[in-house]
Structures are given as C-alpha cells and as structure tokens.
Design goal:
By secondary structure, the chain is an alpha/beta fold. The chain has one domain: 3-Layer(aba) Sandwich (Aminopeptidase). The chain has nine helices and eleven strands. Helix 5 runs parallel beside helix 8.
C-alpha cells in the first residue's frame, strides 16, 4: 500500500525535501510488498519420505497390474493434488490396457501464463513401475522383492518434487508432469500417452525424462548425462539456461542406444520433438540394477536434492524463452 507524507504547514523548500523522502519511502514500500513468488523448498526429508514409501516392501516392487503399483498410483495422485496440479485429462489417470491388465500413467498439469506460449507444453516424466517379485533363482537371503529404489522411485520422486516446486512458479509455457506405468513391459505406458497426445495434436515442445538418478556419477564435470546427446541442442541450451554444466555426453549411452530404451523415445517417434532422458547410473556406480538390494537406504539423498535443484533453472529457461530455442539437429 502506498503512503503519502504531506507537510502542508512547512515552507516550500522543506516540503520539496519531504516530497523526495516520500517518493523514496514509496519505492521502499513497493519493493517490500512486491515479494517474489515463494517456491516450496526441496528438502532431503521430503525426498526421503517419498523414496522410502515408493520403494517399501508394502508396494511389492510396483509391478504393472499389481496391488502394489495401484498403491503407488494413489500416492502419486495425492501428491499431485497437494501440489495443486490439475488433471490434464478428465482425471489424473491416463488409463490403458496391456496383456489384459489395466494400467495408469499419472498426469498432472500446470498451465502457463502467456496467452500464446501456454499452448506449448514441456513434459517432465519418469516411470514409476518396477519388476515386482523376482523368481527364486534371483532371491537373496530370502528377499524376493525388487524394490526399485534407483529404478525408478528416484526418478519418480524427482517429478513429485518438481511438481511441488513449480506449483508456485509462473511460467510462460505449460508444464505436464507424468509418471509412466509399464515401462518395464516395453515402454507401454509412454507409447500410449505419446500416441494419445499426438492424436489430440497437443503441442509438445520438449520431453525431459528422469531415469535412475539415485547415486551420483563419478569423475565427471557434469551432473547427469543426457541420452541422445547428439540428437538435439537440448544439453547445450539447458546448460546455458542453468549457467552450469548440468548435462554431459556419456559414450556408453550412445553405445548401448539408451536413447531408444526409456520413456522419452515414444515422444520422439510420435512427434519428432526433442525428447531425451537424464540419468546418473553409469553401469559401474551402482551394482543393483533389477536386484532385490535396490533399496532406499542405498540412495544418496543429498545428491538427489542437489541434482533436482540444478535442473530447476534449466526447466525455467525452457519454459520462459520467447522462442523455441531447443531444436532437433538437422540430420534428424
């Protein structure tokens, strides 16, 4: 609220001085009242809470079509509601069937505030399913539950934390937060959603997927590698927005064709847009891929928080640039 100081009884020269002081005070009050938007802090405690639940024995490894993944879907829905995300479709659940079973991609939406750019959507995603109960030959000391903490409760938690973070941030473009099901069945959930969005002619600008980020990379200058690094200029522009070397090139990602092996790929296939996965699993820094020992207690929560914090400025840059600066490379 503006305040005006009137010194009507004072001489003109003093009044002029008082008027100047009043103007300065007005500016001070304005600065105090125009507070920047207050984002919800990302904390190790909140990361740990979600991580512990999603990779707990109660969820039985979150296999597609089981009671365990239904519990995970319910949890995600509650988190989306708490973050005040709206459903993109009629509900948060994008339903599909596979092998006679019903599954759900969980989809939350934050509309952009620019009249034109809000029609362009940035998809932030991760898969929340895992492989469930392992056969006897893969059990360890009687443990048969592949809890999937790194694969991919860690990525799922990242999306939930980003949803909370951006619930209070205004962006020009719209943000879609997606947790995919049936990734372990062959990218079934992401194929379904990408096809549905393409059919509905949704204007997807970029798709950024989070996969296995529970432990840090070692001996690298960057925080995470980006699959399909050479497919677009996403890494270059993202690092520019973040003013940090967030994403880098990892030779094994190219060698093993990881670009085609996660939920980013159906979006590239259907829409020919920049769609890539960030990851910190390098095949040597974590020995429990699809293993019963992939447990929450082994996740580096401090690293996870730092990585999530580092990607926020890059996402903001993508969401607020006036032009579509991220493009596929010409040979694609």
């Amino acid at each position: 609220m503006k305040k005006f100081l009137l010194y009507l009884a004072l001489p003109a020269v003093i009044y002029s001085c008082g008027e100047a002081k009043s103007s300065e005070k007005e500016k001070s009050v304005t600065k105090q009242t125009e507070q920047p938007e207050q984002s919800i802090a990302i904390t190790q405690e909140s990361i740990k809470e979600s991580l512990n639940y999603l990779s707990s024995d109660e969820l039985q490894g979150r296999k597609f079509g089981t009671e365990g993944i239904e519990k995970a879907a319910n949890y995600i829905q509650k988190q989306f509601k708490k973050a005040d995300l709206k459903p993109y479709f009629s509900t948060y659940r994008d339903s599909f069937t596979h092998n006679g079973k019903t599954g759900y991609n969980m989809v939350g939406f934050k509309e952009g505030n620019d009249p034109q750019l809000k029609n362009e959507i940035i998809v932030l995603g991760a898969h929340y399913d895992h492989i469930g109960i392992v056969p006897e030959s893969k059990q360890v000391n009687g443990d048969s539950i592949a809890n999937g903490a790194n694969d991919n409760a860690a990525g799922t938690v990242s999306i939930l934390e980003l949803a909370k973070q951006f619930s209070t941030k205004e962006t020009k473009r719209s943000l879609m937060f997606v947790l995919f099901s049936a990734e372990e069945e062959g990218l079934i959930g992401s194929k379904h959603l990408a096809e549905r969005l393409a059919k509905e002619k949704a204007s997807i600008y970029v798709m950024l997927n989070f996969e296995m980020i529970g432990v840090p990379l070692e001996n690298t200058s960057y925080s995470a590698y980006l699959t399909g690094f050479e497919e677009s200029n996403l890494a270059e522009k993202f690092n520019e927005y973040a003013d940090a070397e967030v994403f880098g090139f990892f030779e094994k990602a190219k060698e093993f064709q990881l670009f085609k092996r996660s939920d980013n790929y159906p979006f590239y296939q259907e829409m020919k847009v920049p769609a890539q996965t960030l990851c910190t699993f390098d095949f040597s820094n974590y020995p429990y891929y699809h293993h019963v020992d992939d447990e929450a207690k082994l996740m580096d929560v401090s690293h996870m928080k730092n990585l999530i914090d580092k990607v926020i400025p890059g996402i903001e840059g993508m969401a607020n640039s006036t032009e579509k600066e991220i493009q596929l490379n010409e040979n694609n």
